[in-house]
Write a structure and sequence with these properties.
By secondary structure, this protein is mainly beta. The chain is built from no helices and eleven strands. The protein is globular.
Length: 122
């Protein structure tokens, strides 16, 4: 089992920045950030694996940056130039399964945090 605890969500104005953190109780192979708004499917935002491969969803490319401190088992998501459409509950996810191709598919992640709310106002 892996416990994930997110933090860093807040309310900000458009154009602002936030950094989300996710602390994992043990090491994992891949971790990622997903987001969900009411009535919509949870979607992948950014994922990375221990090999250093990173994937970003098209809407966040150039604005968001995912990183990980392996010494602390902590995942980060730096979000810059935030837009109202980034408003969502953000979830940290992890898997200890090796996938040959890193993706943004939520079905490939086994462990989930409780989520942290990000609200961007115009």
């Amino acid at each position: 089992q892996v416990q994930l605890v997110e933090s860093g969500g807040d309310s900000v104005q458009a154009g602002g920045s936030l950094r989300l953190s996710c602390s994992a109780s043990r090491s994992t192979y891949s971790m990622g950030w997903f987001r969900q708004v009411p009535g919509k499917e949870r979607e992948g935002v950014a994922t990375m694996n221990d090999g250093g491969t990173i994937r970003y969803a098209d809407p966040v490319k150039g604005r968001f940056s995912i990183s990980k401190d392996n010494t602390k088992n902590t995942l980060y998501l730096q979000m810059n130039n935030l837009k109202p459409e980034d408003t969502a509950m953000y979830y940290c996810a992890a898997t200890r399964v090796f996938w040959s191709i890193l993706s943004l598919d939520k079905s490939e992640f086994d462990y989930w945090g409780q989520g942290t709310q990000v609200t961007v106002s115009s």
